[in-house]
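Session log. Operator J.P. requested a structure for one protein chain; no other inputs attached. Running the standard single-chain path with token output.
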Amino acid sequence: MKKNSNDDIIPSTNWLPAIIDKNSVYHILEKAEEQKRWILLLVLGTKPDFYKQFSLMYWANKLDIPLILVTTGQHYKAPLNHGLKEFSMEPVIDFQIRGNLLEKGSELFYKMGCLAKWFKKKAPKKIILPIPHGDTLSAAITATAWFLSIRQGVAQNEAGLRSMAPDIVKHLNPPFNQNFCENFIQKQWEDRWFVIRNEPYPEQWDTFVCGAGASYFFAPHQINVEHLIRESYPKERIFQVGNSVVDAIKLHKKPEASIFDIYPILDKYDDWIRVDIHRRANLGTRRFFSLVKTVLKLVEDGIPVVWIEMTATRQALLHYGVREKILKLSKENEHFLFTPLWENYGNVIEFWKSGKCLMELTDSGSIQEELNELSETICCTMRFSTDRPESIFDAHSNVLIPPFSEDLMYNLLQYIINSEYIQKTMKKSKKIYGTDVGKRIIEHLIHEMNSNATPFQWTHQALYKLPEEDDDIDYF
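Structure written below.
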């Protein structure tokens, strides 16, 4: 092993200071004291949080509940941060975290813990309840920091996401002909599924850790409720509310420029396949090249493809030395559009609803939810498992296309493209994620406030419904 005197085992940190509008924070503290209400601390981490958390802000403001908007600041560059502007979200606190998973996690843990202790000092009797979202790093670290700093749980929006796979995924045996494809899809919709926790990484870790530090669980679907009850979380703190992404679809602003003005070629062809790849598990050599070869084979067949270059996509294409080839093919083939990330969420919704997009070929989580709500575009998920299995076995609006091999993926996609029955079934799927989800979440929390509940309870309080005790001991 080579030694390098400049190779520090533990490098020094160079954190940016948190940006805090203290006047706004004090004003909200005063408002909460006057109203005898809790303060909701709405936490925003990555790009999907901006629109999935928006309806909670919308309904908290509408129902006059004190709310502080916090961003981790990790998506600080355009176009990733555009959702803040698009949804008129103005965070009062910006932690300005940067770096890789370890660096972001460490920095957020420290800063969020300091914030919790500051609130405890300034308003020792006031309940400030963080609401992080889903299976993000910000959810895991917010819950951990808050719990260990002041012994209080959070409220997890989109709780109980547990990755599952259909039994049929264990039997990927060629030939991958029409009979195999038909059977593979039908068994996803109709047969048994099993829990498999290792993907997506690190999102499955994030959601479990957040759950361990949560006091309230807002679950999108009955399967999420069942997971949480099986894991012994308290039934009375689990609420099936739907998924707040449906509110974002309803409440988002119409973009100033149409996607068909930004990319006029989209209007020339019908039945586009829109591709986005960004999951870490799909960026390894075997899977990534299976994905890339499948997409390029569809292009060779003359099928219109628009491929969105996510940040992770770009890194992988550069790492494997194939980005220039993709760019060249995009210039040579009018029906192959290779674009940067679309800035406006409204443009994505516009394209899905336009009738021009046949399919989203994705490894995203939230897109599986969104395309259940939007029936014009079908969803094909490039994973072996999914933490939104209900979109498949309950709704039938989604199917798994495992990145096992180019042969498997290509044949499954061709079967779907040519199957009127499969497309019709997926487009007529039932909607499973509710309505006015943000309103339901805020109303549940108002009920908790009015009933003098506390987010954390000692066992003797939980079992015997004893009142909260004065607890001024500084354990920490």
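Operator note: The two ends are 42 Å apart (CA to CA).
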